[in-house]
Amino acid sequence: MSFNLRYGNEKDFDRLLQLDSLVYPIEWQVTKSFVLTAWKKNPYIYRVLEYKDKIYGFIAFFPLDDASFEQFIKKEIQETDLCHLIIPYGENKSVNIYVANIIVDKKHPLRKKFAKALINEISIELQRIESHGSFVKEICAVAITSNGKRVLNKSNLLYINHYSNDTDTFLYRGTTF
Q1: Which of 18-38 are b and which e, b meaning 16 or more Cβ less than 10 Å from the residue's Cβ?
Q2: Terminal CA-to-CA distance of the chain, rounded, Å?
Q3: Which domain holds residue 148?
Q4: What DSSP element (H or E) covers 173?
Q5: How many helices (H) and strands (E) are present in the chain, helices listed first?
Q6: Shortest CA distance to 132 belongs to which of 70, 177, 87, 72?
Q7: Tens of pLDDT, residue by residue, the chain (177 residues)
Q8: CATH assignment at residue 41
């Protein structure tokens, strides 16, 4: 089995949104405008998994400055506003990473292998970010599915609390994944 992990681009966005809609409830889905705005601010935020020339999964890494990161964690900023707050990577720049999505096509028979590859890709991408000259200060993620919670419980991120007192969402944060 051979698949490819690469940075996402504009041609991929319809498929990413399709996968997003298969996994997340409507209140957590984003628009094409959101994806395009975020990507234009930093073209290294989407990692896609291709198999036989079709995308079956992706991860979204949203780099934020300290203030935006903390405001998001406190839910003073909605996820739908984060596209305007994405920052580029750069020499000697400190960033905080919100791991916004870890999605695989749940119907594909290789979904578990795809998921494992994407989860392994998180640590690799964090190293890549630092190779761009940026320092990853902190990482956070919000689990809204049982699979998301399972993955984050196995990571080095610490469960903090329910996200914004919503008993169906779980906030994790830390300095390593």
Answers
A1: ebbeebbeeebebeeebbeeb
A2: 26
A3: 3-174
A4: strand 170-174
A5: 5, 7
A6: 87
A7: 689 999 999 999 999 999 998 887 787 788 999 999 999 999 999 999 999 999 999 999 999 999 999 999 999 998 889 999 999 998 889 999 999 999 999 999 999 999 999 999 999 999 999 988 999 999 999 999 889 999 999 999 999 999 988 898 999 999 999
A8: 3.40.630.30
